[in-house]
Write a structure and sequence with these properties.
The chain is mainly α. It has 7 helices and 4 strands, in the order αβααβαβααβα. Helix 1 crosses helix 7. The two termini are 20 Å apart.
Length: 156
């Protein structure tokens, strides 16, 4: 979890590869209307986010019921969003919070191609972010492999 451009997809894919688990990017659960809003530079409101978060939670529950583990890269910026995704304490759900300097994240966003999230929405992401008390928190200045190692060490 974390703001746009914090490296959620990069870390999630690397963790999934190391663990042999499925990786899903939460962006793939957005309805077209949400993507259109963000592409136009309009921040999402909670009313836009709830159906999206519920779709992610439904996927998580189905995978868990089938005995499969996975990793989902999702902003999950507010505690209420994490409560929904985590089932208010399901022990099989853990959050990793990727945080870093705004300048670093903005630079990453400017360098990426083909993503619908414009840099203009970064400040709204930071304004919405409620830092979690119960997540593994990592500094994105570290190399991706070091982040993977740290997550695995803390989950062990």
């Amino acid at each position: 979890m974390g703001v746009a451009g914090s490296g959620k997809t990069t870390l999630g894919q690397a963790l999934a590869s190391r663990l042999g688990w499925e990786f899903r990017d939460a962006d793939g659960f957005h309805p077209p209307a949400n993507i259109a809003k963000m592409s136009a530079g309009t921040p999402l409101q909670d009313a836009d986010r709830w159906p999206w978060l519920q779709a992610i939670r439904s996927h998580m529950e189905a995978e868990h019921a089938a005995g499969r583990s996975g990793i989902i890269a999702c902003s999950a910026l507010k505690q209420s969003y994490r409560d929904l995704l985590g089932g208010s304490g399901d022990p099989w759900v853990r959050f990793v919070h990727l945080c870093g300097r705004r300048e670093l994240i903005e630079g990453r966003m400017r360098a990426r191609e083909g993503h619908f999230m414009p840099v203009s929405l970064l400040d709204s992401q930071f304004a919405t972010l409620e830092s979690p008390a119960d997540a593994i928190t990592l500094d994105i200045a570290l190399a991706p492999e070091a982040l993977v190692d740290e997550v695995l060490r803390r989950l062990a």
